[in-house]
Specification:
By secondary structure, the chain is an alpha/beta fold. Helices cover 22% and strands 35% of the residues. It has three helices and nine strands; from the N terminus they run βαβαβββαββββ. It has helices spanning 15-32, 48-57, 109-119; strands at residues 10-13, 37-44, 62-74, 81-87, 97-105, 125-134, 146-151, 155-157, 173-176. The strands form two sheets. It has a six-stranded mixed sheet, with helices on both faces. Strands 1-9-8 form a three-stranded antiparallel sheet. α2 (48-57) links the parallel β2 (37-44) and β3. α1 (15-32) crosses α2 (48-57). The two termini are 23 Å apart. Bound molecules: inosinic acid and magnesium ion. Magnesium ion is lined by residues 46, 162.
Length: 181
């Protein structure tokens, strides 16, 4: 899709920078969970590429993968949104080391809801790994254990992240700058 709108996205992180970040995160996770079994829970759809690359770089960890899908429903007149799980875990996380894998954490609403949901299923430990930690609009307090990049603001696309279901396939990450920066 190349049109006037997508042309407005500016390069933010190159393919090489993304690869380096994934290798670093996989290294941190490998050190923290050496010799253990870890259930990686990808949050659909945005995490699918990140998760696929991440688990292939993790070493000396017995990897399990599952997915959840969370949608946020809200009205156009209210900033309040309520996340709803539309596809739940299929692997029982009870007694397991679990890492939630997100594409981006924005307000933190989706994640805090998901943390509560999975915690109620009694994992041994629950951590959060995100490709991008976007800070400006954060209002739910969530602990991010592993973050590839930190950005303040802007709408980000590529490497799984979409704008209206497009541009997920980009190997680099681009941003729509806010306020005509
Ligand atoms: P939160 O509940 O506000 O933290 O929203 C998280 C979800 O909103 C992410 O998993 C994305 O699907 C979507 N999202 C938030 N910011 C962006 C962005 O900059 N680009 C693409 N999707 C985004
Ligand atoms: Mg999205």
């Amino acid at each position: 899709m190349t049109d006037k709108f997508t042309e407005k996205f500016k390069p933010l992180f190159t393919r090489e920078e993304v690869e380096d970040a994934v290798i670093r995160l996989a290294g941190e996770i490998s050190r923290d969970f050496r010799g253990e079994e870890v259930l990686f829970v990808g949050v659909l759809k945005g995490s699918f590429i990140f998760l696929a690359d991440l688990v292939r770089k993790v070493k000396d960890v017995s990897v399990e993968v599952d997915f959840v899908r969370v949608r946020s429903y809200g009205s156009s007149t209210s900033p309040e949104t309520k996340p709803v799980i539309t596809k739940d875990l299929e692997v029982n996380p009870a007694g397991k080391f679990v890492i939630i894998v997100e594409d981006i954490i924005d307000t933190g609403e989706t994640l805090s809801y998901l943390i509560k949901h999975i915690r109620a299923m009694n994992p041994k430990d629950l951590r959060v790994c995100t490709l991008i930690d976007k800070r400006e609009r954060r209002h739910s307090r969530v602990q991010v254990d592993y973050a590839g990049f930190t950005v303040e603001k802007g709408f980000v696309v590529g490497y799984g992240l979409d704008v209206g279901e497009k541009l997920r396939e980009l190997e680099e990450i681009k941003v729509l700058p806010e306020n005509n920066e």
